[in-house]
Protein backbone atom coordinates (compact mmCIF):
# COMPACT_ATOMS: atom_id res chain seq x y z
CA UNK A 1 0.00 0.00 0.00
CA UNK A 2 1.16 3.56 -0.69
CA UNK A 3 2.20 5.55 2.37
CA UNK A 4 0.92 8.77 0.79
CA UNK A 5 -1.40 9.73 -2.06
CA UNK A 6 -0.01 9.76 -5.56
CA UNK A 7 0.51 12.90 -7.62
CA UNK A 8 -0.33 12.97 -11.31
CA UNK A 9 1.73 14.90 -13.86
CA UNK A 10 -0.12 15.88 -17.01
CA UNK A 11 2.44 16.08 -19.83
CA UNK A 12 1.11 17.01 -23.29
CA UNK A 13 3.54 16.00 -26.01
CA UNK A 14 4.03 16.62 -29.71
CA UNK A 15 7.11 15.03 -31.29
CA UNK A 16 9.26 15.44 -28.18
CA UNK A 17 11.61 12.51 -28.91
CA UNK A 18 14.72 14.60 -28.21
CA UNK A 19 13.47 16.10 -24.96
CA UNK A 20 11.38 13.35 -23.39
CA UNK A 21 14.03 11.07 -21.90
CA UNK A 22 16.11 13.90 -20.35
CA UNK A 23 12.88 15.37 -18.93
CA UNK A 24 11.83 12.04 -17.39
CA UNK A 25 15.26 11.43 -15.85
CA UNK A 26 15.36 14.93 -14.40
CA UNK A 27 11.82 14.73 -13.07
CA UNK A 28 12.25 11.32 -11.44
CA UNK A 29 15.59 12.40 -10.01
CA UNK A 30 14.27 15.61 -8.46
CA UNK A 31 10.75 14.59 -7.40
CA UNK A 32 11.03 11.74 -4.85
CA UNK A 33 7.26 11.35 -4.56
CA UNK A 34 4.86 8.61 -5.65
CA UNK A 35 3.75 9.76 -9.09
CA UNK A 36 2.33 9.03 -12.51
CA UNK A 37 3.23 10.72 -15.77
CA UNK A 38 0.14 10.98 -17.95
CA UNK A 39 1.75 11.46 -21.36
CA UNK A 40 -1.01 12.84 -23.59
CA UNK A 41 -0.50 12.59 -27.35
CA UNK A 42 -2.53 13.36 -30.48
CA UNK A 43 -1.31 10.86 -33.06
CA UNK A 44 0.07 7.33 -33.03
CA UNK A 45 2.93 8.60 -35.21
CA UNK A 46 4.16 10.99 -32.50
CA UNK A 47 7.93 10.55 -32.14
CA UNK A 48 7.62 10.72 -28.34
CA UNK A 49 5.82 7.39 -28.07
CA UNK A 50 8.66 4.94 -28.80
CA UNK A 51 10.86 6.74 -26.28
CA UNK A 52 8.11 6.70 -23.65
CA UNK A 53 7.40 2.99 -24.17
CA UNK A 54 11.10 2.17 -23.83
CA UNK A 55 11.28 4.06 -20.53
CA UNK A 56 8.17 2.49 -18.97
CA UNK A 57 10.07 -0.50 -17.57
CA UNK A 58 12.69 1.74 -15.96
CA UNK A 59 10.34 4.43 -14.66
CA UNK A 60 7.09 3.03 -13.22
CA UNK A 61 4.19 5.40 -13.60
CA UNK A 62 4.62 6.47 -17.22
CA UNK A 63 1.22 6.05 -18.89
CA UNK A 64 0.30 6.93 -22.46
CA UNK A 65 -3.06 8.64 -22.89
CA UNK A 66 -4.57 9.35 -26.31
CA UNK A 67 -6.01 12.85 -26.61
CA UNK A 68 -9.77 12.35 -26.48
CA UNK A 69 -10.91 15.94 -27.06
CA UNK A 70 -9.39 16.79 -30.44
CA UNK A 71 -5.88 17.78 -31.39
CA UNK A 72 -3.94 20.56 -29.72
CA UNK A 73 -2.23 21.31 -26.44
CA UNK A 74 -5.33 22.59 -24.67
CA UNK A 75 -7.34 19.48 -25.51
CA UNK A 76 -4.39 17.34 -24.43
CA UNK A 77 -4.40 19.09 -21.06
CA UNK A 78 -8.17 18.58 -20.76
CA UNK A 79 -7.69 14.87 -21.48
CA UNK A 80 -4.94 14.59 -18.91
CA UNK A 81 -6.97 16.35 -16.24
CA UNK A 82 -9.90 14.00 -16.88
CA UNK A 83 -7.58 10.98 -16.52
CA UNK A 84 -5.97 12.20 -13.29
CA UNK A 85 -6.88 10.51 -10.01
CA UNK A 86 -4.12 11.76 -7.69
CA UNK A 87 -4.79 14.22 -4.89
CA UNK A 88 -2.46 16.73 -6.58
CA UNK A 89 -2.31 17.33 -10.34
CA UNK A 90 0.68 19.06 -11.91
CA UNK A 91 0.74 20.37 -15.47
CA UNK A 92 4.20 20.49 -17.01
CA UNK A 93 5.71 20.37 -20.47
CA UNK A 94 8.15 17.84 -21.94
CA UNK A 95 10.48 20.55 -23.27
CA UNK A 96 12.75 20.79 -20.20
CA UNK A 97 11.66 24.38 -19.59
CA UNK A 98 10.11 23.84 -16.16
CA UNK A 99 12.10 23.29 -12.96
CA UNK A 100 11.00 20.02 -11.28
CA UNK A 101 13.13 20.66 -8.18
CA UNK A 102 10.39 22.95 -6.82
CA UNK A 103 7.64 20.33 -7.16
CA UNK A 104 8.00 18.85 -3.63
CA UNK A 105 7.55 22.33 -2.13
CA UNK A 106 4.48 22.93 -4.33
CA UNK A 107 2.91 19.63 -3.32
CA UNK A 108 3.71 20.15 0.36
CA UNK A 109 1.83 23.46 0.47
CA UNK A 110 -1.27 21.77 -0.91
CA UNK A 111 -1.04 18.72 1.35
CA UNK A 112 -0.43 20.91 4.39
CA UNK A 113 -3.63 22.79 3.64
CA UNK A 114 -1.86 26.08 2.94
CA UNK A 115 -2.97 26.39 -0.69
CA UNK A 116 -5.23 24.89 -3.33
CA UNK A 117 -3.16 26.04 -6.32
CA UNK A 118 0.61 26.61 -6.28
CA UNK A 119 2.26 28.33 -9.24
CA UNK A 120 5.87 28.00 -10.25
CA UNK A 121 6.60 31.73 -10.44
CA UNK A 122 9.14 33.32 -12.76
CA UNK A 123 8.41 36.85 -11.56
CA UNK A 124 8.45 36.70 -7.76
CA UNK A 125 11.69 37.18 -5.81
CA UNK A 126 14.00 34.26 -6.57
CA UNK A 127 12.29 33.32 -9.83
CA UNK A 128 13.91 33.59 -13.26
CA UNK A 129 13.06 33.40 -16.94
CA UNK A 130 15.93 32.47 -19.25
CA UNK A 131 15.63 32.86 -23.00
CA UNK A 132 12.52 32.88 -25.15
CA UNK A 133 11.22 35.55 -27.54
CA UNK A 134 11.55 39.08 -26.16
CA UNK A 135 7.95 40.09 -26.97
CA UNK A 136 6.52 37.00 -25.30
CA UNK A 137 8.67 37.51 -22.20
CA UNK A 138 7.78 41.19 -21.95
CA UNK A 139 4.02 40.75 -22.33
CA UNK A 140 3.95 37.83 -19.90
CA UNK A 141 5.84 39.76 -17.24
CA UNK A 142 3.72 42.89 -17.71
CA UNK A 143 0.51 40.89 -17.47
CA UNK A 144 1.54 39.00 -14.35
CA UNK A 145 2.98 41.93 -12.45
CA UNK A 146 0.22 44.39 -13.39
CA UNK A 147 -2.43 41.96 -12.15
CA UNK A 148 -0.49 41.59 -8.92
CA UNK A 149 0.11 45.30 -8.31
CA UNK A 150 -3.50 46.24 -9.12
CA UNK A 151 -4.69 43.66 -6.62
CA UNK A 152 -6.55 41.66 -9.26
CA UNK A 153 -4.59 38.50 -8.42
CA UNK A 154 -2.48 37.70 -5.39
CA UNK A 155 0.38 36.10 -7.35
CA UNK A 156 3.11 37.55 -9.56
CA UNK A 157 2.95 35.00 -12.40
CA UNK A 158 -0.62 34.10 -13.32
CA UNK A 159 0.22 32.97 -16.86
CA UNK A 160 2.76 30.22 -16.19
CA UNK A 161 1.24 26.81 -16.99
CA UNK A 162 3.64 25.05 -14.60
CA UNK A 163 1.64 24.64 -11.42
CA UNK A 164 0.17 22.20 -8.94
CA UNK A 165 -3.55 21.90 -8.26
CA UNK A 166 -5.61 20.20 -5.64
CA UNK A 167 -7.55 17.92 -7.98
CA UNK A 168 -10.90 19.13 -6.68
CA UNK A 169 -10.08 22.64 -7.89
CA UNK A 170 -9.75 21.47 -11.48
CA UNK A 171 -12.95 19.46 -11.18
CA UNK A 172 -14.86 22.54 -10.01
CA UNK A 173 -13.76 24.93 -12.79
CA UNK A 174 -15.03 24.81 -16.34
CA UNK A 175 -12.22 25.65 -18.75
CA UNK A 176 -13.70 27.89 -21.43
CA UNK A 177 -10.45 28.74 -23.21
CA UNK A 178 -10.24 27.65 -26.82
CA UNK A 179 -6.73 28.56 -27.98
CA UNK A 180 -3.97 27.23 -25.73
CA UNK A 181 -2.02 28.19 -22.64
CA UNK A 182 -4.25 31.14 -21.82
CA UNK A 183 -6.24 28.58 -19.83
CA UNK A 184 -3.67 29.09 -17.04
CA UNK A 185 -4.72 32.70 -16.57
CA UNK A 186 -8.38 31.69 -16.81
CA UNK A 187 -8.05 29.03 -14.10
CA UNK A 188 -6.08 31.38 -11.82
CA UNK A 189 -8.70 34.10 -12.09
CA UNK A 190 -11.63 31.71 -11.63
CA UNK A 191 -9.99 29.92 -8.71
CA UNK A 192 -9.45 33.20 -6.88
CA UNK A 193 -13.01 34.30 -7.66
CA UNK A 194 -14.23 31.04 -6.08
CA UNK A 195 -12.21 31.70 -2.94
CA UNK A 196 -9.52 29.08 -3.45
CA UNK A 197 -6.13 29.81 -1.92
CA UNK A 198 -3.44 30.50 -4.51
CA UNK A 199 0.25 30.52 -3.67
CA UNK A 200 3.51 30.56 -5.60
CA UNK A 201 7.08 29.38 -5.24
CA UNK A 202 10.06 30.86 -7.11
CA UNK A 203 10.91 28.83 -10.18
CA UNK A 204 13.28 29.06 -13.13
CA UNK A 205 11.94 28.74 -16.68
CA UNK A 206 14.33 28.06 -19.57
CA UNK A 207 13.54 28.18 -23.25
CA UNK A 208 13.39 24.75 -24.87
CA UNK A 209 16.66 23.27 -26.09
CA UNK A 210 15.18 21.05 -28.82
CA UNK A 211 11.99 20.68 -30.81
CA UNK A 212 9.45 23.29 -31.80
CA UNK A 213 7.35 25.29 -29.38
CA UNK A 214 3.58 25.15 -29.76
CA UNK A 215 3.13 28.56 -28.17
CA UNK A 216 1.37 30.92 -30.61
CA UNK A 217 1.48 34.40 -29.08
CA UNK A 218 -0.36 36.49 -31.67
CA UNK A 219 -3.04 33.85 -32.22
CA UNK A 220 -3.67 33.44 -28.51
CA UNK A 221 -3.28 37.07 -27.39
CA UNK A 222 -7.01 37.95 -27.67
CA UNK A 223 -7.81 35.01 -25.39
CA UNK A 224 -5.23 36.16 -22.86
CA UNK A 225 -6.79 39.63 -22.90
CA UNK A 226 -10.22 38.14 -22.25
CA UNK A 227 -9.08 36.54 -19.01
CA UNK A 228 -6.89 39.52 -18.08
CA UNK A 229 -9.97 41.73 -18.06
CA UNK A 230 -11.94 39.04 -16.25
CA UNK A 231 -9.36 39.07 -13.44
CA UNK A 232 -9.50 42.88 -13.23
CA UNK A 233 -13.30 42.94 -13.13
CA UNK A 234 -13.51 40.23 -10.45
CA UNK A 235 -10.76 41.45 -8.15
CA UNK A 236 -11.57 41.46 -4.47
Summarize the structure in words.
The chain has one domain: Spore Coat Polysaccharide Biosynthesis Protein SpsA, Chain A. The chain is 39% helix and 18% strand. The chain contains eight helices and nine strands. The protein has helices spanning 17-30, 48-55, 73-83, 103-111, 134-149, 167-172, 183-193, 217-233; strands at residues 7-12, 35-41, 62-66, 88-91, 117-121, 128-130, 163-166, 198-202, 204-206. Helix 1 packs parallel to helix 2 and helix 7 (183-193) runs parallel beside helix 8.
Main features:
two-stranded parallel ribbon, 236 residues, 9 strands, 8 helices, 39% helix, alpha/beta, globular, Spore Coat Polysaccharide Biosynthesis Protein SpsA, Chain A
Topology:
Blueprint: E1 7-12, H1 17-30, E2 35-41, H2 48-55, E3 62-66, H3 73-83, E4 88-91, H4 103-111, E5 117-121, E6 128-130, H5 134-149, E7 163-166, H6 167-172, H7 183-193, E8 198-202, E9 204-206, H8 217-233
Parallel strand pairs: 1-2, 1-4, 2-3, 5-8, 6-9
Antiparallel strand pairs: 4-7, 5-7
Helix pairs in contact: 1-2, 7-8
